[in-house]
Amino acid sequence: MMLGKMAVQGDAFYSLNTQDIKYIKNGLFCIDEKGFISAVYEKQDKAYDVVRESYLKEGKLKILSASEVMIPGFVDLHMHAPQWPQAGTALDKPLETWLQEYTFPLEAKYKDLDFANMVYEDVVRTTLSYGTTTALYFATVDREPSTLLAKICGRLGQRGLVGKVVMDDIVGNPEFYRDASLEKAISETEKFVQEVLEIQDTYKQKVYPVITPRFIPSCTDNCLEALGKLVQKYNVHVQTHCSESDWEHGFVKQKHGMNDAQSLNRFGLLTDKTVLAHATFLDDADVKLLAEKQTSIAHCPLSNVYFANSVLPFREFSEKGVNIGVATDISGGYSPSMYHAIRQAVISSRMLNDGVNSALTQEQRGRNHSAITLNHAFYAATVGGGIALNLPVGKLEKSYAFDVQMIDLHKNMPLFYAEKKEEDLFHKILLLSESQNIKEVWVQGNRVK
Amino acid sequence: MMLGKMAVQGDAFYSLNTQDIKYIKNGLFCIDEKGFISAVYEKQDKAYDVVRESYLKEGKLKILSASEVMIPGFVDLHMHAPQWPQAGTALDKPLETWLQEYTFPLEAKYKDLDFANMVYEDVVRTTLSYGTTTALYFATVDREPSTLLAKICGRLGQRGLVGKVVMDDIVGNPEFYRDASLEKAISETEKFVQEVLEIQDTYKQKVYPVITPRFIPSCTDNCLEALGKLVQKYNVHVQTHCSESDWEHGFVKQKHGMNDAQSLNRFGLLTDKTVLAHATFLDDADVKLLAEKQTSIAHCPLSNVYFANSVLPFREFSEKGVNIGVATDISGGYSPSMYHAIRQAVISSRMLNDGVNSALTQEQRGRNHSAITLNHAFYAATVGGGIALNLPVGKLEKSYAFDVQMIDLHKNMPLFYAEKKEEDLFHKILLLSESQNIKEVWVQGNRVK
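Predict the joint structure of the above. Result:
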């Protein structure tokens, strides 16, 4: 028998679809040399015992204890890595203060590569420790620290997708923090893409460059057009903010005479590897367009509370065929934990469903048929993220990358009372885990925590 | 100089009022033999050095390290201790399933005192480890395990206020889980009150009995009336659920022809030591009544998402003179952490302010002037809780109990970037801490974690 790199024996949960969770009791997960799952055996499979014995004999079998469970690593679909130092601060301030006094001055500091190195190492170590195995990052406007972030992801073992942020409009951006010119914005972006593509295969789990216009209000039309051409030339990922708030949505409507999604599409920026953060104000035509283009939404439930003025109609958009992933959106969202993002996705959907204002009647208050299940939020944070990025991650099945969190059940969780079903245990993991419950994290078959 | 039991030297934060946080740098907190703060000295105070020297010489000075900060312990104003085993489960189920298949059968199990002992020890240890120094608990309908919970709080050092739950109505409650009769409900409650009063002073931090009708729909009118008399006779605390959801609010209106608050008042159940959980559907007259009676609300922001169909208008009720505390409401709320409750209080208030449904105009969507600050939520979780219970807890000032969490800043928190103000650090503590950040917990001058 040809053995792979190793096998892991233990219990596991993952999403079969938006509603159903697969529970494998004492499964055998075989991992090949490249870090992909080559086979999964369940107890009742004929070959289980002989395969298990083979790995065991070769010293290639890792056996989880009875108090451990595996779930897939999370895909954080939107995070501003440079904003990590200010996570949890200034959220009571108005947006203008938050941007001008906190965010932009902080992002400008990353020109200092020592500072960038120090913070970005902490970002990647922290998110890995919270179980985020794949992350789609906004870096800053400066190229060098952005490439550095990709390298740090690579070295520390995280599947990082990184964008040098583009913001060339002299009206929409402060003088101390923007691209020097349209030409510079494009040449630096192209150089960034080339630099990251060059090192992409250096790392087993790979890293990826992402074309990243901050959002329409910060870019000139010429710039967006040129970025669209780069997307076509290099066939790389795209990320931006889209229809986030009353202000932003209204601004684009006034400037371009159409919604963000339609406008981004004109510039060739809506692909099946594009991720749009927020997207709370999409109208029916926008939703249809995203579904057609197979463009995904990064749902940022926590930062939406602070800056989006409303809740993403997650269930409605999902049922209309748009793929949705979940994101922490540091530091508009204060928490680096995808567990919190998952919980908040459910919470926000229920509040949209029931409404919030008790002075209104039940009928006026909410938006019916909007609540999502915890299983659906988990699906989005794993499988949805994988679909969004066109990457084989999010499930524990053959041909998927072995990206796994090993959960220690013997902390923070009340387990002395028999759970009625496996699903009860799964929900406890999602709702009660803290970072200390995440005992080990594996990316592409390598242990990284 | 007469020294007390000990002094603690270190940095501290606490609420001066609903908006302002007092920061003391390297303060000296003197604690008397009974566990109260006898004096607080700041660096600039004349006596600081001599007092410090005196405690130091006597070996009675504890000095916090530079990476530690003190904040007051939390007051959890509403928690169902017996529901802890099912925390984080079945929240996608309809209320009826949640009650009949999960909650009531679980609560009925506490007749088994071994089971009760096992779970309740875990509840008290867990909540203490999350920084909850005072807790107002619903126990179960059975007297003996309820008294046991009070004893466990006492022994483990938590300031526990415990209620034997009253639910005597044969219509509103399942046969396997309710008071055997009206008479039994009252006699068992009175016996429970006496039992807890008897052991009250056994523990330095004390424990307290609480008159606890589950809510109006589960009690007969005769029962509520008799409970009101017990309140008068023993001058003890009261807790119940109030105007929680569309269903419950409507039920009481139909049954009694008035809102919960008005009805509870008829029975003498609204005092300045009464705590009403939820209270999301109060009308103006209810709010006025609560302010007059100095009756407090236990705001349960997380469980309200699941079972209350709307958000408590926290800011409005607070500005109209009603005192509000914060609660986890295990297991309608899944988390035992008051940090999560504080965060959700802010989140829910912002969602009430901005509204949730992007299909409506900005004007139709929200309820203006509803957002609360993080400082306000913290105030409610500490000082507000103390006021609700008429207990000297929640501040780090002279005559308050020394109830403190000592926070380790060297975990989970990005501190390499200089915070602009002390408040930034304080907000990071509130928004990013996990239980492992809570290094020590002290109640009434005793270390309990």
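DSSP finds 15 helices and 17 strands in chain B.
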